[in-house]
Design a protein that fits this description.
Elements: E1 5-12, E2 18-28, E3 35-45, E4 56-61, E5 71-78
Parallel strand pairs: 3-5
Antiparallel strand pairs: 1-2, 1-4, 2-3, 4-5
């Protein structure tokens, strides 16, 4: 079974080796048909403490790391505002 991959924005990086990622999805209301936004926060493992608040990242499902962490950050999609990103030269 393939691992699930989600994209979301980091809302907190205060924990050691942990970031909280807010994943937003759009669903159609069952009765009224209007498109509404639903969001959920996931605790993800960040081994190097490399990701900061405001960045958009991709997270992947893993075996449980702790009570709340069952996801790990695999890559940065977009840097946050005012954040410098090193280029690979």
């Amino acid at each position: 079974m393939p691992k699930r991959v989600l994209t979301g924005q980091i809302v907190s990086d205060k924990g050691d080796k942990t970031v909280v990622v807010n994943v937003e999805r759009k669903v159609k209301h069952p009765l009224y048909g209007k498109i509404i936004r639903r969001s959920k926060k996931y605790h993800a493992h960040d081994e190097a403490n490399a990701y900061k608040t405001g960045e958009t990242v991709r997270i992947e499902e893993t075996a449980p790391v702790s009570k709340l962490k069952t996801w790990k950050v695999i890559e940065r999609v977009q840097a946050g505002k005012g954040t410098a990103v090193e280029a690979d030269v």
